[in-house]
Amino acid sequence: MAANTQTAGTDRGHAIALSISFLARIGATANAAFKALQTARMLSTLSNMNDHQLAQIGISRSDIPEYAAKLMANE
Predict the structure, then answer these.
(1) How large is the average pLDDT for residues 9-34?
(2) pTM for the full model?
(3) Are the CB atoms for 29 and 51 separated by under 8 Å?
(4) What secondary structure, in 3-state letters, does the chain show?
């Protein structure tokens, strides 16, 4: 039985494209998880500061979530 090299090449290219797509999704998921972890750490760190320390960086306790989101958006 003869093999069709055009079909085999197309199938291989499709498999490679699927693999790249899969890896890109994993990368995007890992990146989102990493950003969520960083945000949680930042919120925790800021929340553990006293009001005087927060005032020194120019925010109040109620500003913490917005400030953390702003910092994460700049990364």
Answers:
(1) 88
(2) 0.64
(3) no
(4) CCCCHHHHHHHHHHHHHHHHHHHHHHHHHHHHHHHHHHHHHHHHHHHCCCHHHHHHCCCCHHHHHHHHHHHHHCC
